[in-house]
Design goal:
TIM Barrel, alpha/beta, globular, 15% strand, binds cytidine-5'-monophosphate, 8 strands
Length: 244
């Protein structure tokens, strides 16, 4: 895998016009575009068709499904060719994860969302999560990664600082996708992410893919920012293999 292929750029923009602008700017500099709730709600499945048939780019459909097994199965069945990765929340339990995996079998890789990176110990405690997990979110991530793997998921979404432990627990083939990536050179105004890491650190810790949004999208020169991230990925890969 080329370093660039490990970079996922989220199309967190309000409409297709804005999305097209970033796709043409970044097409040769990132591996996958991620379609999340904002754009999907605005543009619907027609936008996914546009990605595959007109823009001819692969995408990660990040709708983070969180519902009963029957509903998730029906929704997943409509996910189109062209999607390489899709997400479901692990906290809806084994049956839902198994249903999600079965409905996408051999078409799309399914990732379990473990614990979103805007949540810290206080938030988890307030949500009723047992204090041994709330105090140490990495333990909750590991518990959920094991559950996702047992249910047949191809990998998980977690913070960079949890990547190494997930790889150690679930094995090298189990995909680790890390958002909340903050290069040392990028400041994000009013940042909502906690549990952050740089691209270099996350890759070195074992992430297969990193999701980098605002540090690229808000940069004066998004292409230059994407290139800098790819250079960090390359360095992280080098240092990771020299440690192996
Ligand atoms: O880099 P930035 O914070 O802008 O990236 C935001 C993107 O990362 C959003 O698309 C969000 O859905 C995604 N994300 C995620 N899982 C998290 C945190 C953020 O998929 N735990």
């Amino acid at each position: 895998m080329q370093p660039r292929e490990r970079l996922i750029f989220p199309l967190d923009v309000p409409n297709k016009t804005e999305a097209e602008r970033f796709i043409s700017l970044l097409k040769d500099h990132v591996g996958l575009f991620k379609v999340g709730l904002e754009l999907f709600v605005a543009e619907g499945p027609a936008f996914l068709q546009f990605l595959t048939e007109t823009a001819r780019v692969d995408y990660f459909l990040d709708l983070k499904f969180h519902d009963i097994p029957a509903t998730v199965t029906s929704a997943q069945a409509k996910i189109m060719q062209g999607a390489k990765l899709a997400t479901v929340h692990v906290d809806q339990g084994r049956k839902m994860l198994q249903a999600a995996v079965a409905s996408l079998k051999n078409r799309v890789k399914v990732l379990g969302v473990t614990v979103l990176t805007h949540l810290g110990p206080d938030d988890l405690e307030a949500l009723g999560i047992a204090s041994r997990y709330a105090k140490d979110p990495s333990q909750l991530v590991l518990l959920r990664a094991r559950l996702a793997q047992a249910a047949g998921c191809d990998g998980v979404v977690c913070a960079g600082m949890e990547a190494r432990a997930v790889k150690a627990a679930c094995g090298p083939e189990f995909l680790v996708v890390c958002p909340a990536i903050r290069p040392a050179w990028a400041a994000v105004p009013g940042d909502d992410q906690q549990r952050v890491m740089t691209p270099y650190e996350a890759i070195k810790a074992g992430a297969d893919y990193i999701v980098v949004g605002r540090p690229i999208r808000l940069a004066a020169d998004p292409v230059a920012a994407a290139r800098k991230v790819v250079a960090e990925i390359e360095q992280g890969m080098r240092d990771r293999s020299s440690l192996a």
